[in-house]
Design goal:
Shape of chain B: globular
Number of strands of chain B: 5
Protein name (chain B): MIP18 family-like domain-containing protein
CATH topology of chain B: GMP Synthetase, Chain A, domain 3
Number of domains of chain B: 1
Structural class of chain A: mainly alpha
Radius of gyration of chain B: 13 Å
Largest interface: A-B, 32 and 33 residues
Pfam family, one (chain B): FeS_assembly_P
Structural class of chain B: alpha+beta
Number of helices of chain B: 3
Radius of gyration of chain A: 21 Å
CATH class of chain B: Alpha Beta
Helix content of chain B: 25-40%
Oligomer: heterodimer
Organism (chain B): Paenibacillus crassostreae
Largest sheet of chain B: 3 strands, mixed
Shape of chain A: globular
InterPro entries (chain A): Cyt_c_oxase-like_su1_sf (IPR036927)
Organism (chain A): Paenibacillus crassostreae
Chain lengths: 414, 97
Amino acid sequence: MFRLPFLFIFTGLVSFALFQLFSLFDFATWLTVLGDQPRYPTGWSRIHLLVLGWATMIAMGAVYQLVPVVLQNHGLFSKKLGYVHYCFFAIGTAGLLIGFQTMQVMMIATFATLAFIGILLFAFNIATTLIRANKWDPITISVACSVVYLVLGGTAGMLMGLNFYFQQWGDFHERLLGAHICLAAIGWFGMLITGLSYKMLPMFYLSHGYPVRLQKVVIVLWNAGVLVGASSFLFNGPGWLKWTGLLLIVLAMITYSYHLSQMVKHRHKPNPGVGILWSYSIAHCMTIIGIILVILIPFIPELIVQSRMIVILGWLYLWGWIGLTILSYLSKIVPFLWWTHKYGPKIGKGKMPTMSDLIDDRHVRITLSVIASSLFILLVGLGWNQPMITSVGGSILALSSLFYISMIGYVFAK
Amino acid sequence: MEMITECLKEVYDPELGVNIVDLGLVYDIQFVDGNVTIVMTLTTPGCPMHDTIVGGVRRALDTLPEVLSVDVKVVWEPAWSPHLMSDEAKEDLGYMQ
């Protein structure tokens, strides 16, 4: 099981590199414009390049790689279907990005439909695999929920696409957008990251004998938060209902972070690798930011009304947590994928490199630090409305991200 | 038997960099008329290295001329625990109680 996850992860790496190159070439315009008003053709195109082309591609590859592992070698329902899914999703996403950039509604509609068919095929493949294996634990339940949210988020996106063409729904379009973001960004990515972390952290920390009850609490709170949040947007609920959704997600993050600490407390290996250490620290940082937000919003409701603040929060969540966590995990997932493919068949025939020999942890640490610092500079620039600071932060972010992704890509040459 | 154990020490967990014997993954070795049966476990159920390590055990033992067949049985009871590691492995990993 190498080619299918590899195909998705490789495409994700290419999309990520493209996103960074675009950022470098025209940061002075789109990055700063994005700070004021993200909803314009290039903004739509770039955000979907990051979210669909990179994060979702990588996430789908990770699911194809890790689900059979979690199910104890119970194979995927259909690898062939996985390749068909890839074709629909990759072609659909590429066309959708061009459609957004050139603002051709028919092109958006056609390629969004192809990408959505890809999502449905993925959901069918994973759902059938999970149902056939019938092994339900917090990891498989989290993956199942995340896939459901991906389908629901995609459905909301498709409906928005239809409304681009028919222009019938007026205000409902805005409500769909809120639900689309809530379901896709918080539901799909959030449930997947938390669920897969229950496998990744203990594996690399060699943790044993830790309690798992809180994993169920996270699932309940996260689902409640996503459903309350999405419903509040969809049915035009009052502000306090949206805040309640956020509160539930923050409570889920607190529980999740605490549970990660339980795993670390029961570790038998002090150094799990820089990628795992970073993912652990990022989760804690995001939890603290979430707590601050939940406390501040009732007193300063403008925080989530101003488009500039929404952009900052979007960057924080998408880049600060999802993006950095994916980058951190890639430093473990890609060496594992490549090692298994290249050296797996030779194991038992003498000494060979270990996975940690395939990537230099010191470089991972330094580059992740630069990425996180430049993201901070970018956010400061956006917050203070200082285009120069935003541009400097954005450029360093793009350059360091390109370096990081090259480092990950270089694993395939070892 | 000594020869089989030494051979199994060529099979490394690629993440931990420690061989499966020192990791305490090998529970039992039987050698009868050239037929080897290995009863072993992995550090966690649903270990991503399951097929790779089991394949490695077969390949390592296939190199011994005395071995006619290899049967590897992966069991989860008793569950592996870090205290099963050799002192050398514990030291290599910076084992924490």
